[in-house]
UniProtKB/TrEMBL annotation:
The keyword Lipoprotein does not apply. GO terms for molecular function: glycerate kinase activity. It holds the Pfam family Gly_kinase. This is Glycerate kinase. InterPro entries: Glyc_kinase_flavodox-like_fold, Glycerate_kinase, Glycerate_kinase_RE-like, Glycerate_kinase_sf. Keywords: Kinase, Transferase. NCBIfam families: glycerate kinase. It comes from the Eukaryota. It comes from Spironucleus salmonicida.
């Protein structure tokens, strides 16, 4: 039996590499032929899935506190990961507040590479809903009001004062690895779908909807699928910098030659921390299933919905545990479920 394993990270619990290692150790004596892939979709661990070469830098998190982060390189092209700088995992639940969090640190990290001819930006896993304006400030952009006076942008509400944006004269060719297909505005947009997980209350939707409409007025371009990713930053990157937007999951899988290596394979195991309503909007587990011809089995920490791209869905939860307890053992728990399923299939 030929089996492929392609797991995303279980946020705050285990990376794809750690899950693969746990599974490999568990199934090594079973009569299977296995291949292991690191799955990511533009969120956390994307850079690590693409390259082992990285350098450490100092910068700022979403609350503008000093941090250290890594930038990976593939063929000498930097891969700047939003989750490494202003990622949601760097903040506690109590610290999540889109009225004050900013993507500034991601922009400042990118600014260091403006002299390069090409850069990759991965934009998943952010803690922000500032429509990329913090990023623009960090990059060195200038904001003007209707009288051409400079606007000093600090928090998301300041966007309402902005009428013009002046970007740097020279910038690299930008390829954005995007993890979702959501639009910028509307019921499936950046505010209503992703805002709540970043600390936004439903009572805040109206003001953020107003800001997103103002952003569209400033830039004056039609929105496209994916523009709602990472708090709306993709809309800004696409239209101000002519960035090329690609599926993060497809990019990562292509880099690992997934389709060729899994030709003729019988089963794919995939999964991540949570299966929810966002999972069918271009997330990595959906993409990898679309590229696999055999049976697809999903293993998740939490299951909040059903999906049609998996043939079977399992939870890795064992008994009643707190979230912290579950995260500590998720690699082992996933590998146990995998082992038990394969044993049944081999009977």
């Amino acid at each position: 039996m030929k089996i492929a394993f392609a797991f995303c990270s279980f946020k705050n619990g285990a990376s794809p590499r750690q899950i693969n290692q746990a599974i490999q150790q568990k199934v090594q004596k079973l009569n299977i032929e296995a291949q292991y892939f690191q799955l990511s979709d533009g969120g956390e661990n994307t850079a690590a899935s693409l390259s082992n070469k990285s350098s450490s830098f100092k910068g700022w998190d979403a609350l503008q506190r000093p941090i250290e982060y890594n930038i990976a390189f593939i063929n000498d092209i930097p891969i700047i990961e939003m989750a490494q700088t202003v990622g949601i995992e760097k903040l506690s639940k109590d610290e999540l507040n889109p009225f004050v969090t900013t993507s500034y640190g991601f922009g400042e990290a990118t600014k260091q590479f403006l002299s390069y001819s090409d850069i990759y930006l991965t934009v998943g896993g952010s803690a922000t809903v500032d429509f990329g304006f913090g990023f623009l400030k960090g990059l060195g952009c200038i904001f003007l009001d209707q009288n051409d006076n400079e606007v000093y942008f600090n928090v998301v509400k300041d966007i309402i004062q902005i009428q013009k944006i002046i970007i740097p004269d020279n910038h690299p060719n930008i390829t954005v690895l995007c993890d979702v297909k959501n639009m910028l505005t509307g019921e499936t947009g950046a505010v209503r779908v992703f805002g709540p997980q970043k600390g936004l209350q439903s009572s805040d939707f109206e003001i953020f909807d107003k800001i997103s409409t103002h952003v569209k007025m400033i830039i004056n371009k039609e929105e496209q699928q994916g523009d709602g990713a990472a708090g709306g930053i993709v809309y800004v990157l696409r239209n101000l910098f002519n960035a090329k937007i690609v599926s993060g999951a497809e990019f990562v899988l292509e880099a690992q030659n997934f389709e060729d290596k899994t030709q003729g394979y019988d089963i794919l195991f995939t999964g991540e921390g949570q299966l929810d309503s966002q999972s069918s909007f271009g997330k990595a587990c959906q993409v990898v299933c679309q590229k696999f011809q055999g049976k697809k089995i999903g293993i998740f920490g939490q299951i909040k919905t059903n999906v049609d791209f998996l043939d079977a869905i399992f939870s890795c939860q064992k008994g009643i545990k707190s979230l912290d307890e579950a995260l500590k053992t998720c690699s082992e728990d996933v590998s146990d479920v995998v082992y038990n399923i394969i044993n049944v299939l081999l009977m």
